[in-house]
Amino acid sequence: MRPRHRYAACIGTVTAGLVLAACSQPANSSDDDDGESGSLSIATGTTSGLYYPIGGAMAEIIKDSVDGVNASAESTGASVENIRLLDAGDSDLAIAQGDVVYQAYHGDGEFSDAAVETNTLMVLYPNVYHAVSLAAIDEDLGLDCFGDVAGHRFSVGAPGSGNELATNLVFDALGMSTDSDISRQRYAYAETARALREGQLDAGSWVVGEGHGSLSELEATDPIHLIPMCDDEVAAVTDQYPFYTPHTISADTYSTIDDDVSTIALWNVVSVSSDMSEDRGYELASALYENVETISQVYAGAADYLTLETLENSPVPLHPGLIRYAEEQGVEIPDELRP
Question: Can you give the pTM of this predicted structure?
Answer without folding.
Answer: 0.80
